[in-house]
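Predict fold of MPBQ/MBSQ family SAM-binding methyltransferase profile domain-containing protein; 342 aa.
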Amino acid sequence: MAYSVLYGAQNLRPHEGISPNGLGFLGISDFNGKCFPKNGMVSYSSRNFRATTVMPRCCVSTSRPVSQPRFIQHKKEAFWFYRFLSIVYDHVINPGHWTEDMRDDALEPADLSDPNLIVVDVGGGTGFTTLGIVKNVDAKNVTILDQSPHQLAKAKQKEPLKECKIIEGDAEDLPFSTDCADRYVSAGSIEYWPDPQRGIKEAYRVLKLGGKACLIGPVYPTFWLSRFFADVWMLFPKEEEYVEWFQKAGFKDVQLKRIGPQWYRGVRRHGLIMGCSVTGVKTVSGESPLQLGPKVEDVQKPVNPFVFLVRLTLGAMAATYYVLVPIYMWLKDQIVPKGMPI
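Predicted 3D structure, encoded as tokens:
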């Protein structure tokens, strides 16, 4: 769930002296809580979508209003949150919310089979998702981008990623030229973006004609307590929101794949940090046809230290809840007879 936004493009810099090059550098959940196939693939050919697996029909939901509290879903708070979480991230988050099996399952629709593909991993963090990418793609063709130097320092220590380009950057203002990459991958990053539509618009821009974007993120839970903590922590989009954002950005052949660990048994009552993998294809070269206004969050604006501390503390408390959810679900899986939804 590495967070990939920085304090603005003007602060972009290579990580620990590594010079960026080669990429044209410029400086569904069931809302009734019922059971559905864990790995179902849903295809969307238009705004009136058709599902390849059975799923409830739901209206496209609107994003949360700006007035709704978003405690650590702010760039500055998240920067410091990951300053400390980076120490234990691979040992605490991945075992419960983002396992190797889930990662490989989520990356499968991205078609990462050619070693010569140029790939950008936006919000790559400690490099856990990147390790799945370099299984088939040459590491020298992969760029890891994240806002957190502390997370990136962990990625830099991993031997399979030694040849990857590692930089700090902003997911909503990518430092890559237009039409430069074959694949765009972002796992566990969108939940922190102040403006998800802007980030997906950037994904469209940097891809080459025929390139594919693969975005992996959480799905809005159905249980009331999980919804509460999701809302005060970060963005848990609904499946329809993911699809709408991709379509508005200009992507075609949009598909959504549900992912989750074995113990989830297909029920999304509590939500997961990683809940779905969404892919789309760029069919027209150039920038996205979508026009957007100014960014919704001004990171240069001074922040009241007390407000900053309160938001960071409350966000960390909400995060703790989601660290405990996998433990609870795993224990429940051991008790409830197999074949029954939990």
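Confidence is low (pLDDT under 50) at residues 1-22, 24-39, 44-67.
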